[in-house]
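Batch job 17 of 40 flagged for manual review because the log was empty.
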Amino acid sequence: MRFKLFLLWGILACTQTIQAQLKPNLADSFLLFVQANKAKASLYITNNDTVIAKLNQDKVMPLASTVKIMVAIEFAKQASAGVINEDSYVALAELNKYYLPNTDGDAHPNWLEYEKVNKHIKSDSIKLLDVARGMMLFSSNANTEFLCDLLGFDNVKNNNQLLGLKKHTAIYPIVSSLFMYQNPKAVSEERILKAIKKMNEEQYSKNIFRIHNQLKYDSTFKLKFRPQDLTMNMQKVWSDRLMSSTTKEYNQLAKILNNRKIFNEDAYALIAEILEYPMESKAFQNVFKHYGVKGGSTGFVLTHVIYLTKKEGTKMELSIFLNNLTEQQQQQLEKWLDPFEAQVIFSKKFREKLIF
């Protein structure tokens, strides 16, 4: 069984984006795939507020881990307003409540190892800011669910109006949603999926929050998780019902982060610490004033959002969503995406090819 939930490009891949411009053939491969598979793709790319590429930009598609941008924004809002203290510590045991082994491509354990190496863990606790960064750098689903609880799911969701997002589906607990696809009583898979597909968004979310409360308050509940039940059919329905939006709306969101006009200076400073981690690389510092990124994937989805301001003043926002991919397609596209984005960012000649 291929079980791949929310794998993403970590900081290593992001710091390789500049070097990736040296691979124009891979960028062309990505472009040719999208041109030949338009029904599977959505793009919206702007350069200094001018749209330079668009395809299915109003099509609602699963976001995968890219939705975590919304959580990062609410974190920065509350921390800058003094509602939470980003330098306060949280016990690792609290985060562990939300961790399900073998469901995140080892994102959470890899994050913990990273924090140990960097000596950020004290008395089995870690700063909230590092939890938020782990949500982005490593895409820890456990960190995400914990932060949504801390910040308030409704508070995260209510930013849709502030940010002008009209096609964004409701925010719900990512980890807890996996329990919807359990089959402990040997009920037929077809019957389970039929029941899930019948649920509207409100019913689906209500069931997930019920599970979420069990996961949060019952330390033995997560022991009931059965990853073996999550067949590819189950994973596909789960993936299709993930939080969704459009590339046009996420490009708009990227522009808000890039232009730094809606939130206060302290909030943007925190957003930079969480989302703009590639700027910790000298290679990026030499070229960019700002560079924020978030990507995500399931076994069928690939999403990526970038906003950047070059030192010479050029601003760009890239939103790229793909869905209904085969295993082979996704593996290829993961290799081609960074080179494609690098060519878009650095090559005017390549940008002229963006015709769909």
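Reviewer: the log was empty due to a logging misconfiguration, but the result itself is present. Confidence is low (pLDDT under 50) at residues 1-15. Unflagging and moving on to job 18.
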